[in-house]
Amino acid sequence: MKVLLIQPPIEDFYLTEIRTYPLGLLYLGTLLKKNGVDVSILDCLKPYKKKTIPLPKEFNYLKEVYSEKEIGPLKLFGAYYRFGLTDDEIIKKVCELSPDYIGITCNFTAYFNIVAALAEKIKAVFPNTKIIIGGYHATVYKEDILLKHSCIDKVISGSDENDFLRVLGLPEDESHCFTRTVPDRSLINSSYYKMHRKNFSFLIATRGCPRKCTFCTVASMHGSNFIKRSVASILEEMSYLCHHENVRVFDFEDDNLSLDRNWFDELLAGVTETFRNDDIRLYAMNGISAETLSEELLQKMWQAGFRNLNVSLVTAQDSLKEKLRRPFLNEQFELVVKAAVLLGFEVTAYLIIGLPDQTKEDIQETIEYLSGLNVLIAPSIYYPPPGTEQFSELVAGNRVDPDNWISFRSSVFPVETDFLSRKDLVYYFQYIRMLNFYNEIKKKYASALGSIADLNSISPFLLENIDVQRATEEEIGIAQLKEYLASGKMLRIYRK
Ligand code: SF4
Which terminus of the chain has fewer Cβ atoms in its 10 Å neighbourhood, N or C? Predict the structure, then answer.
């Protein structure tokens, strides 16, 4: 029996390429292979390629927001792209492999239209091939998908890989358990996955999170249990990757990696000891909760090979945090961030802009709060996350159209509220870009750069006399900063 597992292409204004390692499909493929299935994985996002495609009509309102001609550090997105293989290229691969079953992963509701179109085309050419959809979107919208898309034969919910064996009519593998599985990387072309020209791999050490943030999607996929792998099995996987595949950069994609402090402590000690001479770098790009970190743990993270820390504050306002059931207060966040900065970590702190009931004052307060912490501020534009408590509440209150699937993504500023218009959201997004740029040049020139005269000492240009065709990004940004200091206006710059 032949099975082809597909990571589908993506259509959007941008793609964070490094975050597309197909680890979920590797876990599934490993189980199928172990049970005698002839399995292949097709990562349609590799090798990396993108092509400009027409903007979907649903996003016409963004023509006022995005321009391909915008330049300078305040620049937002420009063109709309297809990332990855075309449907015809995928069909060609399917033809070469001639599988009995095709599994397509669909984690994001906003991208389901691409999966549905692909499934339809595959079915038209290979009517006898069974098409199975899995992933987060499939978990939340199982019935809808089956009802509306006859080309899709089965939908698998949740993260139990054994469900796929059942769909194939094979007996469940009772010995299978996430905590004991080491994904078989021979199923992918590892040379595609690099970071800073070094071999790179995703890892997952835990599944789930028992916290109950109202906007979080983790519980719908994994339930509320928190399951950890043994430190020994993680070290075994990392050692194999390091010594046989020359992987030097590891990204833990866990939802709450440090939740169990003692276990995390043990993991860090094991990594430090095992890879003492291997110059590895560790990341937790999916973020790490400030709730459980301490200065001592941060020191151990540094020793193990972490140099970056992604932490999410969401909002600085405690009342809003309480509403969202976020598990920590600002004091803990601040303690962790300050300790991390002192240790030398590059800290990226996330906030959400456009949350239901969030006000301009709240956003302003959160930005000011983060500005004082010497971090890179990363704004996430709010979108309604299907399958969450918050989503159900918004739908019940008629505040979100539950069928507007294509818009459930950050890049399209999808939700306007009584307190925040789209214009406001764009303003704050760019304002944060300006702040980050300002902090960057202050660092670069080791100077406070508090006045227009200070900025003139680096670049003399003003917006009215700058040659936008030839000016550097920095010159444009400094001219924009001067304009802001003089008039309070953030002006966007476009090439002719
Ligand atoms: S702490 Fe993080 S992973 Fe856990 S529920 Fe909250 S947002 Fe989700």
Answer: C
Does residue 183 share a domain with residue 155? no
Ligand 1 pocket member 385 (CB < 6 A): no
Query: Same structural domain for residues 208 and 312?
Result: yes
pLDDT of residue 389: 94
pLDDT tens profile 241-290: 999 999 999 999 999 999 999 999 999 999 999 999 999 999 999 999 99
228 with 348, same domain: the answer is yes
Is there a contact between 79 and 113 (Cβ–Cβ < 8 Å)?
A: no
211 lines ligand 1 (CB under 6 A): yes
Q: Distance between CA 304 and CA 187 in Å, rounded?
A: 28
- Residue 427 burial (10 A CB sphere; 0-12, 13-18, 19+): middle
CB 131 near ligand 1, within 6 Å: no
Q: What confidence score (pLDDT) does residue 463 get?
A: 94
Ligand 1 touching residue 209 (CB < 6 A): yes
ipTM of predicted complex: 0.99
Which atom of ligand 1 has the smallest separation from the CA of 215? 7
The two tokens of residue 323 are 């509403």
Quick one: 155 and 33 in the same domain? Answer: yes
Residue holding tokens 């700058």? 466
Residue in the structure block whose two tokens are 């692909």: 118
Q: Which atom of ligand 1 is nearest to the CA of 209?
A: 4
Is 56 within the bounds of a domain? no
Report pLDDT digits (tens) over 158-183: 999 999 999 999 999 999 999 999 99
C-beta 313 within 6 A of ligand 1: no
Please state, in angstroms and rounded to a whole number, the distance separating the CA atoms of residues 444 and 424. Answer: 30
Point out the domain boundary residue: 131, 162, 178: 178
Percent of the chain with pLDDT over 90: 97
Mean pLDDT computed over 297-323: 96
Residue owning the nearest CA to atom 1 of ligand 1: 211
User: Ligand 1 atom 8: the closest Cα is on which residue?
Assistant: 216
Assigned domain for 453 exists: no
Output the pLDDT for position 356.
Answer: 93
Ligand 1 close to Cβ of residue 327 (< 6 A): yes
